[in-house]
TrEMBL record:
<dbReference type="GO" id="GO:0004190">
    <property type="term" value="F:aspartic-type endopeptidase activity"/>
</dbReference>
<dbReference type="InterPro" id="IPR032799">
    <property type="entry name" value="TAXi_C"/>
</dbReference>
<dbReference type="Pfam" id="PF14543">
    <property type="entry name" value="TAXi_N"/>
</dbReference>
<dbReference type="InterPro" id="IPR001969">
    <property type="entry name" value="Aspartic_peptidase_AS"/>
</dbReference>
<comment type="similarity">
    <text>Belongs to the peptidase A1 family.</text>
</comment>
<dbReference type="InterPro" id="IPR032861">
    <property type="entry name" value="TAXi_N"/>
</dbReference>
<protein>
    <recommendedName>
        <fullName>Peptidase A1 domain-containing protein</fullName>
    </recommendedName>
</protein>
<feature type="domain" description="Peptidase A1">
    <location>
        <begin position="204"/>
        <end position="545"/>
    </location>
</feature>
<dbReference type="GO" id="GO:0006508">
    <property type="term" value="P:proteolysis"/>
</dbReference>
<dbReference type="InterPro" id="IPR033873">
    <property type="entry name" value="CND41-like"/>
</dbReference>
<feature type="active site">
    <location>
        <position position="222"/>
    </location>
</feature>
<dbReference type="Pfam" id="PF14541">
    <property type="entry name" value="TAXi_C"/>
</dbReference>
<dbReference type="InterPro" id="IPR033121">
    <property type="entry name" value="PEPTIDASE_A1"/>
</dbReference>
<feature type="active site">
    <location>
        <position position="427"/>
    </location>
</feature>
<dbReference type="InterPro" id="IPR001461">
    <property type="entry name" value="Aspartic_peptidase_A1"/>
</dbReference>
Amino acid sequence: MTWTHESEMSTTRVILTGFVSFVAKFGAPRVDEVFGPDSGSPGAYPALNAQFLSDTVFRIRIFSFDINGEHKLQKLRSNDGAALDYGLLSVPSIFIFASKTSRHVIFLLLLEVDSYVQSINQSSIHLNIYHVHGHGSSLTPNSSSLLSDVLLHDEEHVKALSERLANKGLGSGSAKPPKSGHLLEPNSASIPLNPGLSIGSGNYYVKLGLGSPPKYYAMILDTGSSLSWLQCQPCLVYCHAQADPLYDPSVSKTYKKLSCASVECSRLKAATLNNPLCETGSNACLYTASYGDSSFSIGYLSQDLLTLASSQTLPQFTYGCWQDNQGLFGRAAGIIGLARDKLSMLAQLSTRYGHAFSYCLPTANSATSGGGFLSIGSISPTSYKFTPMLTDSKNPSLYFLRLTAITVSGRPLGLAAAIYRVPTLIDSGTVITRLPVSMYAALRQAFVKIMSTKYAKAPAYSILDTCFKGSLKSLSAVPEIKMIFQGGADLTLRAPSILIEADKGITCLAFAGTSGTNQIAIIGNRQQQTYNIAYDVSTSRIGFAPGSCH
């Protein structure tokens, strides 16, 4: 950070490159704890850079902008005798606090800115999944440029996810042989699943209750995340606007913060890839969670009563009660983590319902209320085609499978088998399916060859480089795309899962090439629409069943 001043009251130019969140509340760390060994000269600290930001235990946002405003130089003294000079810069809707002492450095940015049960019986509960832009969604889009924002957010998500996998040394994965027996345990909890565009997200959300008495919140479904969390009062640093009122733990009879000595706190590193922190004085466990797209959450690791339906509850559900966040979470209250980790909602429900779940993601224009579902527990395996669930030793919580072929209108792309030998991840948090460059180029060429004989080409839109003139409804002769997996399971895609209406009169192919050197395939939620998809963790297999979300 560069901070200059000429007098006690002056106009100041600030170039902000990063900040450490949450320090003001939980105590400034020593310089050598955050920055590493001192350089030897008083007041000299290493420059903020990407490597430092990725190594520090605090969540730091990287961005650059200039601000002009007035500041007043002030001085305080800490209880350890260190002098503290700080400047407070005030401009419309933005407050920046920066300080440097003999022992402490702080950078802090603050930006101003029913019933959900579809069906229930003794063996299952059915709750809806919503797409944020779908019918039945309680959340309304805020911007006409929402799709563009969603696509840019999705690209950042995929880039960072690819970097994470590359840095962790991702291999092709390994599969455990399926065990005999049922796909899922006899009991199940089923939750309505909803399209997320109406809450400003390209993802899907469920409505879950938390606290005693329960309050219901829109929570984004994420198979790539382990820790569940939602925004909490008093929101000490920054919380984004959400559709539901902020969760207030002080009014819940069953809420408690977990300590740094708890077993759950010791599991945070595996769940979030970040070390836990301890609050000064109370020894409360603090988490920092990153989501691969510059989004993050910081808060207390907590427990409270989770309500799936009126008669289906989970006492002492472990989750994050966030106090600071950044990113495109839309107007959702938080995230439900369904990855393969001990802190995920799946693991916490496994003793009751089994270590498996399934869902069906509705299209955004689903005519039914909600239209989709998330089911934790029993589903008949007879309707599914299965493929082995692969496990990467460096990223064991994520869900991998093996893609063996792609066809367009029944014809293979003509690629060598070696091209398909790349890791393939299925992820509900990715919107548009990504393919390695050579694979995507072959798919695009085959698709355009058929489409261009009937429809005029249109300019590219955001990350979508293959577009045609006409609405999605008017493009009636779209060739079928089939993605085939090891063992014969497949996703057979038709127009609503192949194309996306980008603008008035412009519809684009909802696939993209993987950027960067890490060539992986990611099956996004657009291509998963209307399929029943089962994740049987106990027998290491993933199942696909075509149909609809009923």
